[in-house]
Fold this sequence. Notes:
about 450 residues; alpha/beta; 2 domains; 15 strands; globular; disordered N terminus
Amino acid sequence: MKKSILLTLAVCTSLLCVHAQSDHQRYVGGDISMLPQYEKHNSGYKDVNGTKISNLLVWFVESCGWNTFRVRIFVNPDNSDPSVCQDLEYVTALGKRIKDAGAYFMLDFHYSDTWVDATHIQAPAAWKGSDDATMAEHVGSYTHEVLQALKQAGAAPDLVQVGNEIMYGLCGIKVHPYNSSGDNWTGYLGLLKAGCDAVREELPDAKIIIHTDRPTNSGYNNYYYQKLVDGGIDFDIIGLSYYPFWHGYLNSEQVKDKQDKNNLVQAIKNLKTLFPTKSVHIAECAYNFQYWPADGTYNYDTRDVWPNTVQGQYNFVKDLVDALEPLENVGGINYWFPEEAGNGDDTNWSTSKGTVIETWLNRGFWNENQTSSGHAINKTGSVSGDKTAADVCAPYYMKNFLPDTPSAVENLEVGSQMSDVRCQKILRNGQILIIKGDKAYNLLGQEQ
C-alpha cells in the first residue's frame, strides 16, 4: 500500500465528485510526427496573442489542454519523402518528450518503409517475399522490439495503432470491406493477431487501435470490424480518419438535401449499436484554410458548409467537437499535422535544403509565411472583451471535447492536518492530483 494523505471529508467529497466525471477517459490532441523537423529548421510558432511559443508540445498541453499526441513509425524509412523520417531513434526521442510533458503517447505503426493507406499496403523491403506465417512473425517480432525499446527509454506508448488506415490490407496482404474474390482474410488476420498480441504482452494497460479510412460508410465499417471480431482480434478502439473533402459531411442536417446521405455521426451511432464495447476515436482529421484543389483530388466539395478559409477551418473543428462530444462511444479526437507551417526555411527553398515537407497542404494551424518571431497562428479574430482564445482559434477550442472540471478544485483548502498540501487542476492526462512538496498523489492518496 502506498503512502496516503488524510483530507477533510468536505475536500474528499468535492474531489471524488470531480474524479467521477473523468472515469470515461477521453483523449484530445494531434499527430505531431513532423514537429522535430520543423524545430530543426528553426520554424517558430506564435500563439493567439502573437507571443512566440518556446516549446510547442508543452504549449499544446498547458495552453490548449491537449492530453494526447500521436507519432508514426516506419520500419526503415526509405527517404522517398521528407515526411518519411520516423525511425525508432526519432520516435523514441519524441515519445520521451510527450511522456515528459505528462501527455498520452499514441504510437502509429505503419509496418512499412513508407506511407501506408487504403491504396498503399506494401510490406517493408526486408520482409517482402515472405509467406503469410513468416510475415506475421515479422510483424510480431518487430512490434515487440519497438515497444521494448520505448519502454526502456521511458517512452512507453499509452495507445497503439496496429497499422495505419488498413481497411484494404497490410504488408501486401489484400482484403476489402465487402465480399471480394482474392481476399486473404486468414493471412490478414494473422498479421493483426501477431501485432495485437505483441502489444498486449509488452504493454498490458495500453489501448489497441485498429485504424481505417472509410468513416462515413456504415456498410464498410460494419463488415470490416465484424470480420475482426469474428476472427478473434483483441483490440479496444475503432480508429477512423475523417477528412470531409474525402469522406463527406458530419451529420444528417448537412446532408438532408444531398444525394449522398452518408455522414460521420450516423456511422458512429451505427458502430455503437453493433460494437457496444468498442470506443471510437477520430484518429485523424484536418481541413484546408487556403487553396482548394481544382484537379479532382477531393471526392466532396464541402465548402458550402466550411469554406476553405481560417474561419472555415475553425468552424470545422468546432462543429466536429460539438457533434462528437455528446456521443458516449466517442473517446478521442486527434488532429493530423497541426504543426504544419509551410514547407520549411524559405531562404533555402531554391536548394531544397530547408524542405520539411514537399507540398504545402494548408491544413495545419499556422500560416506558412514566417517572420522573425515565427508563424502566425490561424485565428478568426482577436481575444478581447468576452472573446476567449477558444472562441477564435481552433486548437484552443478542442479542449471542449474533454469532460469539464470545476475550476473551484484548483484552490481547494484542506484540513489543518495537512495545511501544507494544496490541490490543483493538472491538465496533464486530465487528472486531478494532490501536490505535496515534490510528490504527487491521486485522489485515493496513492503516490504517483
